[in-house]
Amino acid sequence: MNEFIHLQSKNHSLIIKTARVPEVLHWGAKIAQIDEDLLLSTERPISQARLDVDVPLSLCPELGSGHFNAPGIEGHRDGLDWAPVFSLVAANQSGNAVEFTLRDDMAKLELTIELDLDFDTDVLKKRTSVKNLGDSRYCLGKLSSTLPLPNHANELMTFHGRWCHEFQTQRQHFEHGGFMQENRRGRTSHENFPGLFVGSHGFSEQSGQVWGFHLAWSGNHQMRADVRSDGRRFVQAGELLLSGESILDTDESYQSPWLYGCYSNSGLNGISQRFQQFVRENIVKFPVDKPRPVHLNTWEGIYFDHKPEYIMQMASEAAEMGVERFIIDDGWFIGRDGERAALGDWYLDEVKYPNGLEPVIEHVNDKGMEFGLWVEPEMVSQDSNLYRNHPEWVLGLQGYHQPSGRWQYVLDLQNEGCFNYLFERLNDLLTRYNITYLKWDMNRELVQPGHQGRPAVHGQTMALYRLVDELNNAHPNVEIESCSSGGGRIDFEILKRTQRFWASDCNDALERQAIQKGMSYFFPPEVMGAHIGPDECHSTNRRHHINMRGVTALGGHMGVELDPVKEPQAEKEAFSRYIALHKQYRHLLHGGRSFRIDPADKNQNIYGVESDDEMLITVCQLAMPDHALPSPLRINCTDANTKYQVKLVEMPQTSFQLMKHRPKWLDKTLTLSGDNLKEIGITLPILDPESALIVHLQKI
Ligand code: DGJ
Description:
- There is one protein chain.
- The longest helix has 21 residues, at 569-589.
- It is globular, with a radius of gyration of 27 Å.
- The model has no long low-confidence stretch (mean pLDDT 97).
- By secondary structure, it is α+β, with helices and mostly antiparallel strands.
- Helix 4 packs parallel to helix 5 (358-366).
- Bound molecules: (2R,3S,4R,5S)-2-(hydroxymethyl)piperidine-3,4,5-triol (DGJ).
- (2R,3S,4R,5S)-2-(hydroxymethyl)piperidine-3,4,5-triol binds at residues 299, 329-330, 374, 441, 443, 483, 485-486, 502, 505.
- Its EC number is 3.2.1.22.
């Protein structure tokens, strides 16, 4: 076996030392060649009053060899074999990927560690499997993926949130101790997005060394970043297994979810561009390669009040505005007049739709739009025929009462009868009607996730993937949106089988600026559902002018979430204008490289997208400007001599309260070269709080 495994991508190197266990020596900038003395030059001293031997921080750290922080594996065999110590038996490298096999012959366990460094994007993925080689059952408590970081990675950026307040970020020192996140909600969750960043002190959007991580899993998870007392540090993530959730029979294996990671020496932009490119090339699959259609979703427009004639009127108005896909949200199925009943009864409500759904769909199609439908397959209302007929299909623990959430319960997808019923219902809807899009909701947590008495979040998550996969196979042209109360199930693994996220139930444009920024570190704009809502936001009661709402929605996968029939003419014209603007730049927004600019004014959010020929930059004034005059917008153009035509394409059209006289260039097209734009910048107008502008740059 070689002393080193060297995986190389376009810009980066991952060097792993292969001794008793594999240990990462370097993950970062590309190393041209491994010097002969590298082994010697990286040998660690042994400190006083510690163990007498060196303890590697391996790819799966072990308690049994003296790693006193979180081990990579935990478990036991009826109280025995709880501190395994592995030895490397094979390392098979194939191109940029390697698979290590390790064995503990005493504990009778075999570990497989897979690492794959994607050449084009520099994104590393890692997962670990364990196989029980013993002849008794092994109760696995934990199997995580560990990746060490250098000591100058001393600042942490993590995510927190809640419903309507997703993807919020927090910074902390990462010098001693650490950070730990445990998600037991049974879905990816609004609260615990499985991602974090560690970087050199003060890393920002545009500068600093950063390592980014995302665990691709839609169930429970555990994610931590730890600094050992010797200064070595690591990130570790994996599925959170409930007590007794994974019991391996002889020769049975457990495989962890993929942990994705990547390095950047150009701040968070370098990470998000790599993750976004990786998602485009390896994660999301669109059935047809076409522009992402602009949506109108009926939820906030009519809620449960479904009248087909009226919905057709909404569709006509939507088509007028330039909408390309019309989605009927919750309220279309039998008995669904409010939140408290009918989930599970996936049959059309013929009282509401006496002529069937067909006339509505035909109308939508005649107006040149696709048709989509809302479903929440994993759920059942207590007041439903499904519950009355199959109370035993509820995911729960017999003998205990479990609280409902939104007056509903979760169905046990591992129950074959239940799984088949759901497949049959969804398959029937997709076969019967011309539906090309499903908005797949999931509005509650798993409180007692029991299948036949045993903990079952893992099984439930795998069964969900299977259900979506089988539907995808049966209806390959149907796209699916992962909604989950908006923002509750956003991760790479669900995105392998869906095409869009409803990023948040909060349509407040100001809140959305933060939510969408947080999400943009991992996901490209074309999968981020972003809708214009009515001027008074339903989730916050805050009012925003259409400029702020239009600009904020325009940057994602755009849609409209309101009743167009009731909107004033001026608003409708504005919706059309923002939809047209979105379509004009959709090729760039949904295909270019996204970036964020470190603002001199902390009350601004500046972000953009670039291709080889053009750039679109949004400046959003989140709150009162920090100073009386705005700082210049300095744009990071790679080529100093290239000339650009610079043009304002959007700014508030109402009167300006803070600005008496506007810079003349706002009404002109400027010609500026890369170094002028980068080093001197463009002087901005003074924006009032909660307003935004967009600038377009075209290479000449
Ligand atoms: C929660 C979703 O996030 C909303 O967009 C809407 O679809 C409702 N559920 C419907 O019940």
